Amino acid sequence: MFGALRRCPASLARATSTSALRMPRAVRATAKQPALSKDAFAITGVRQALRWQHAAASTQAQVADPPSQEAGVITRFSQLKDKGLIHPNVINTITKRFGFDEMTDVQSKTINEALAGDDVIAQAKTGTGKTLAFLLPILQNVLNEDPSLARKGFSKAAPDDIRAIIISPTRELAEQIAFEARKLVSNTGLVVQTAVGGTQKRLHLQNIRREGCHILVATPGRLRDVLEDSYTGISAPKLTTLVLDEADRLMDHGFWPEIMTIQRMLPQPEEKEKQTLMFSATIPPEVVDMVRSTMRPGFHFIKCVRDDEAPTHERVPQKVVFARGFENRMPALLELCVREYGRRKQSGEKPFKAIVYFNSTAEVNLAYRTLNLLESRTFRGPTQTTYSGPLRFIPLHGKMSQQERTRSTRTFKMADSAVLLSSDVSARGMDFPDVTHVVQMSLPHQRETYVHRIGRTGRAGKEGEGWLIASELERQELPRRLRDLPIEHDGSLVSASVDMTKEQQLPMSVASILTNLAEAHRSVPLGQFSDAYHAHLGSFQWLNNKQSLIYSMNAMAKYGWGCSEPPPLGRVLVEKMGLAGLRGINVREYNGGSRSANARLNMGPRISDPFGGDRSTYNQRDPFSSDHSTRGGGRDSHGGRDPFGRHSGGGRGASVQSYSFGSNKSNRRPGREF
Ligand SMILES: Nc1ncnc2c1ncn2[C@@H]1O[C@H](COP(=O)(O)OP(=O)(O)OP(=O)(O)O)[C@@H](O)[C@H]1O
């Protein structure tokens, strides 16, 4: 097959003699290295036909539809083999082992440019196969340089043999990419290694030293470590391709300085030409400018998402639930999980498998601590069906040990039905199979984060649902932050709108959720509430009306968590956050952790909202202030009121039950204070 293509150098000569055309990398390499293999010539010759139409020299990015689409030639993987563009050993793995036949849009639109050695930045929706889109050309380009590596079992890699580096923002994503790459090269002699943060540094280094490396998948910090340390013997003087996956994330303030440092440690353009490939589902305009300064002139910007199109998938309906207060969000989440789990079980649809995103690690910890206690509980569904112990909760965030992170990731990947409680560590790139629901607790900080989180469902043509459980405080901010996204209001979750400060009649299904949550909260250590309170405050810094924020958070602490007083905040933190002087803050001095005598001095009486704003949505008084004491509940130091004291009604099987929130009823438990 490859042999049949060796009559093409004629077109190659034409290419090189036309000064107006940019030479493909293989040709440029030929000029410097006359000994380039015949196979590489053959491949270059074939793809040249596809390149003629668009190879005009330009210092601007070419944003137009790429020629692969104009020519309409390559849409199936087998065509890549038939045309001699990708080695049969690799294509056979894709078609036989992966079972893929058709290429996705981003794969077929980027393949020619990437194979030609051009710089490419590509934007395509989540779950559309971008990983394969960059892996295929980089593998082939290594094989073009050394065709002998196409033979399985024939490996001669050294630790300084790295030809391609793929950088990913998270360890989990790097491991996932490496896993895919290893499957892809399983019929060749190519060696894939990882260099990711965490505990396995020594093992990774040993592997690279012992087995060598052609393709290195890395996280920025560890890559820098490895390249900086000359004692490792690991270097990349032969590097031909650098891939930035989730490019816009790698270009933000957190990572960019590190990426620049890494770039300086790689071969410079005057020593060796290096191709750069960047992929992401989101490429905000400010990133395009940075791309220009990083890529070679004439780079291709291949957009598989139209400007007038939402960056999320049409087949993933998106809903927002406005919870009456912060304290209603967890009940709403649990109601959604119980309902959707039961509905799917009854209808025989794919099992309920959800990811719930929180804006902080502390909130993940608190949710896990609470919900994990409910794993074996019985809930009543809306139709009186009883579901017992089905919901399995798994935590994932960046402060867990690497071992725990790996365990959580694996467990959730393999689970038929489970709920992953996660920070944004899993928001980008992670390919968990068959996720049916993505739930976001509160607005994410950025529109891009929302898009990537939603992208964990509805992947590779599957169906899914996106839910955002926000509070009334966020209602006005939503259209600004998540502009142009097809999000519809949903009012179907009863517990989202229950007034938890009052006694009232509730459907049994909702009552059982609230009771279970209240009981679970009793065994949560107070420190976890404190951490979550801090983190929550931090993630709402954008809100101008800080007084309402404090009151709303105190309502969450009192009616949601059952606290007897607001969780304490250090004085320095209060000042730093611009909260000094606000009512309802429990200020703690740094004097060994105990609450100072003036800890509650700031807790004022009810006041009207001094900052104006929408009165119907903003909390205007402090739930812990003294004039609420008759309604107030929580675990206080004077006997511990039960904020969710069940006091009447219903009995087994009744559809409605009376609940009082924050009332001073029987069923008391000894309370605790911070
Ligand atoms: N041509 C194809 N045909 C069918 N499935 C494919 C094809 N290419 C990739 N896939 C599958 O689609 C899923 C999503 O692919 P991948 O993880 O590469 O998406 P992505 O575009 O990188 O997503 P994200 O933006 O979230 O990073 C994976 O399970 C992958 O195996």
TrEMBL record:
InterPro entries the record matches: DEAD/DEAH_box_helicase_dom (IPR011545), Helicase_ATP-bd (IPR014001), Helicase_C-like (IPR001650), P-loop_NTPase (IPR027417), RNA-helicase_DEAD-box_CS (IPR000629)
One GO molecular-function entry: ATP binding
Primary enzyme class: hydrolase
Protein name per Swiss-Prot or TrEMBL: ATP-dependent RNA helicase
CDD domains per UniProt: DEADc_MSS116, SF2_C_DEAD
Gene3D superfamilies, sorted: P-loop containing nucleotide triphosphate hydrolases
Biased composition (Basic and acidic residues): 624-645
Biased composition regions of type Polar residues, renumbered to the chain: 655-665
